[in-house]
Structures are given as C-alpha cells and as structure tokens.
Design brief:
single chain, 171 residues, mainly alpha, two-stranded antiparallel sheet, globular
Length: 171
C-alpha cells in the first residue's frame, strides 16, 4: 500500500522549480503571427512621428492577446504586456524596456480607423480560410445566452451561461 501511495503523491516543491524553468518551445504557434503582424502594419498609425516609441502592430497584437487571456481594460492590457514583456521581446524580436502606459494604449487604440482595422481583420480571416483544407474548413456557429433569473446578487452568484454550437452546412 505504501509504495502505491508514493506513486501518486505530489512531488516536493523543489521539483516544481525544475519544471518551471524548462524552456517553452512555441516556434510553431509564433509562425502564424507573421502574416497577422504584416497585415496589422497596414493599419494607419494615428500618432505623430515623435510619439511612435511602440510599434502599432505589436500594440494591437498584444492588446488582442491580453483580451483573449481575460483582459478587459487598458490597465489589464498594460499588465499583460508588463508581465510577459521579456517573453514578448524574445518572441517578436523587440527591445521594449517597459510596457506602454495604459493611457498610451488607450490613446493608440481609440484613435485607430475602425474601417481600416475591419479591413485588416477581414483579410486575415479570409487568409486563414484560404489556407484551410478538408476537415479544417468546417465552420461552427456559436450562440451564447445568459439564463434569465439565474443571477443572484444576494448570494453573489453570476448568471448561468448557455453555449450552443452547431455545424454550418453552407460553409
């Protein structure tokens, strides 16, 4: 019995440090950002030439990554960039000494041309679709709803969410 328990026990804390320091190989995932960064560089930059300390495509991309990881404010975008700055610098060949301030991020994102941004994302989505073949070309429609009456402020319970997914025959 005792030898069976030793197999499933959580390793000592010092063993975790070994795993935490292992390099993360992300070359495959990062290759797909090259096309997106190229497209994001076509968005007109609203800043003056003197105010371009941070390149627009990377500010937009890192804002997207922050939003995907749960960031919902300019401060959370700044925090995301600050926390991951060394990895982002290494992965994208940047030399940012610090993350842009949340006010700078707000200034940049709010002044972007919405039509230009939309065109870039439509072209990126079309490129992803053109590169897909066979089973990866299938489209899934998603629909989310909050259940009425499931929110309980007294017990601090959030509303229950439903997600419906279905295959689209027309794609």
């Amino acid at each position: 019995k005792s030898s069976a328990r030793a197999d499933w026990q959580i390793p000592a804390r010092r063993d975790f440090r070994i795993y935490a320091r292992q390099p993360i190989h992300q070359e495959v995932a990062l290759r797909s950002f090259d096309q997106l960064i190229g497209l994001l560089s076509e968005i007109p930059d609203p800043r003056r030439a003197e105010g371009k300390l941070y390149k627009l495509p990377y500010v937009v991309l890192f804002s997207i990554l922050a939003a995907v990881t749960g960031g919902n404010s300019y401060r959370s975008i700044e925090t995301f960039i600050d926390v991951h700055r060394s990895r982002l610098n290494a992965a994208f060949g940047l030399n940012w000494k610090r993350a842009p301030a949340h006010t700078a991020i707000r200034y940049i994102l709010q002044r972007l041309d919405p039509k230009g941004v939309e065109q870039v994302f439509r072209r990126h989505a079309a490129g992803l679709l053109d590169g897909a073949s066979g089973a990866s070309r299938r489209t899934i429609a998603l629909d989310g709803k909050a259940l009425r009456g499931s929110f309980d402020n007294f017990r601090d319970r959030k509303a229950a969410q439903l997600l419906h997914a279905g295959a689209c025959p027309w794609a």
